[in-house]
Write a structure and sequence with these properties.
Elements (H helix, E strand, L loop, with lengths): L27 H9 L8 E2 H8 L3 H13 L4 E6 L2 E5 L8
Antiparallel strand pairs: 1-3, 2-3
Helix pairs in contact: 2-3
């Protein structure tokens, strides 16, 4: 499922269950803007920092950041048992 520039959401409802999936209010472009609008372009961000900036859940931010990584717009590195750092690689800098 591609998320670029579009909202992401669940594709359907299972009988008897409510609609599940990421909030359609947030897009990969919103997440990328968090990186492009910060003062220190070299500082990596955590998933929670992106979530806090967007006002969404950590899992929503993680989904958006993962999609951006798959599109080679950002890079990431596991830095702990349950933590990743995310950044825009030098060759992708948009500033």
């Amino acid at each position: 499922m591609s998320l670029t520039g579009r909202s992401i959401y669940a594709s359907g409802i299972v009988a008897g269950m409510s609609k599940r999936g990421p909030d359609p209010e947030y897009t990969t472009e919103d997440a990328l803007a968090v990186f492009n609008n910060r003062q220190d372009a070299c500082e990596p961000l955590s998933t929670q920092e992106v979530a806090d900036e967007l006002g969404c859940s950590g899992s929503m931010a993680y989904e958006l950041l993962t999609e951006l990584t798959e599109e080679n717009k950002i890079a990431s590195k596991k830095i702990g048992a349950r933590a990743r750092a995310w950044w825009i690689p030098e060759d992708n800098e948009t500033k």
